[in-house]
Specification:
Blueprint lengths: L9 H13 L1 H26 L6 H5 L1 E7 L4 E6 L5 H6 L8 H12 L3 H18 L6 H30 L3
Antiparallel strand pairs: 1-2
Helix pairs in contact: 1-2, 1-7, 2-7, 5-6
Length: 169
């Protein structure tokens, strides 16, 4: 899991923590939409940075329903595809299967059929000896929205505090 720290000032954190105890329904009402907004922003930025040949990985990256814990609400953006992690983080040297590399060479490099296999084997050999570099699409996508996420969540905290004051809680 890749996380991006979101900074709220201490008074907001303390107030939201108190609100979770006395008015959890108000916390949900203010923070669930804010966290979904942040999650959709993150999804857009991550997908934009995702390498693609067939777009399978990029189209699999989705914002999901926030995970609600006893004392937390966590926004989730992810993919069920197992190869997302090595694309994100890179990989150690290993022998990748040849067919997906051949497909990639055809689509991404636009090579003719007779050129595909030798190029795919050369890529396979390089991965076998050197591994792959990470694309870091999640890390950089989350970093790109950090300031905006902080503003959205801070606004949700301020609206929550205003509602609590209005209700005398």
């Amino acid at each position: 899991m890749i996380a991006v720290p979101i900074q709220l000032d201490m008074s907001e954190i303390d107030a939201v923590a108190r609100a979770m105890e006395i008015a959890p329904e108000l916390v949900d009402a203010h923070f669930l939409p804010a966290i979904m907004e942040v999650s959709f922003l993150a999804q857009r930025e991550i997908v934009e940075r995702t390498p693609r040949a067939f777009s399978n990985l990029a189209s699999s990256i989705q914002a999901r329903e926030p995970e609600i814990g006893v004392d937390s609400i966590v926004g989730v953006v992810g993919t069920p595809l197992a190869y997302a992690e090595p694309v994100e983080m890179g990989s150690r040297p290993h022998m990748p299967p040849l067919q997906p590399l051949k497909d990639w060479v055809k689509v991404k490099l636009g090579k003719k059929q007779k050129e595909v296999e030798p190029i795919a084997r050369a890529i396979q050999w390089k991965i076998f000896h050197r591994g792959t570099k990470g694309a870091f699409m999640f890390r950089s996508g989350l970093a790109a929205i950090q300031g905006q996420a902080e503003r959205i969540l801070s606004a949700a905290a301020q609206a929550l505090l205003a509602d609590l004051a209005r209700l005398g809680r």
